[in-house]
Design goal:
Length: 301
Amino acid sequence: LRQGLGKTRRSLVNQLKAIVGQGPLNRDAVMEIEALLLQADVGLEATDYIISTLQNRLREEALPPEGAIEYLKTILRDILDRPLKNLGDPAFAPEKDILNIWLLTGVNGVGKTTTIGKLAHLAQKSGYSCLIAAADTFRAAAVEQVKVWGERSGTPVIANPGKNTDPAAVVYDGIAAAQSRNIDLLLVDTAGRLQNKKNLMEELAKIRRIIDKKAADAKVESLLVLDATLGQNGLRQAQVFAEVAKLSGVVLTKLDGTAKGGVAFAVAQQLNLPIRFIGAGEGIEDLRPFSSYEFVEALLN
Ligand code: GDP
């Protein structure tokens, strides 16, 4: 992870350490920190919170450089943990003995299909049986791509090759297959068309209705896949999804390719959603359950 966050570390952390290590924050220091955080796409809200909290503490007592960095870490962890409060362990943990259904949403290109493949792999590795429903029926290529990831991870894929297939029908078939095979986790690839908010909303609502009807006992998660390289722009997309889908968490991808890793803090602060997984690479192993401790340590150590 440390390596994956290399770009963000280099741009943000070394400089931040130097400034914070100088003692009480004067006006120049505050402005420098502000600029660094905004540059890493931490966002205005989280940046304000970080600086005012840090400043209050440094006014109270002079902290040695290492102490100031440790305190900064607690502020950062606190931001990431707040939306996780009621969620318990952020590890990869589908519930035992019931069907878990995870809906993955996100705009095309953010890494949704890749994430599904990685999640399927993680599931199998962790001893959960898994099935994928290819319900992004709008793009023919999407179904093919999901199948490739299904093969890679050794996971069966439920798809309906017909033209204009109803995504909800694929979800229905997926649930039926999952129930008859006693599957632990059904991963659902959904369409990510933002251009037509109303369609998207209706499509997701219909999928939800099918789930409520056919798998009322299932534990449903709705995960938004966000591309970290898009920084604050990605967050704007996220807001649209947050309006139409009942999101329960975020998967942050492509952290390896960006200096905007600070967007993790903006996600937590602005969207009030827990980050559940992070992707830092194109390979099947490059996804891990999110831990605020691990993330902040990787960033600031
Ligand atoms: P989708 O359109 O949202 O399904 O996106 P894809 O899963 O097809 O991914 C789009 C591109 O992003 C592909 O080239 C992936 O290899 C790449 N990608 C996905 N996740 C990551 C990641 O964590 N790191 C990097 N560097 N690339 C990624």
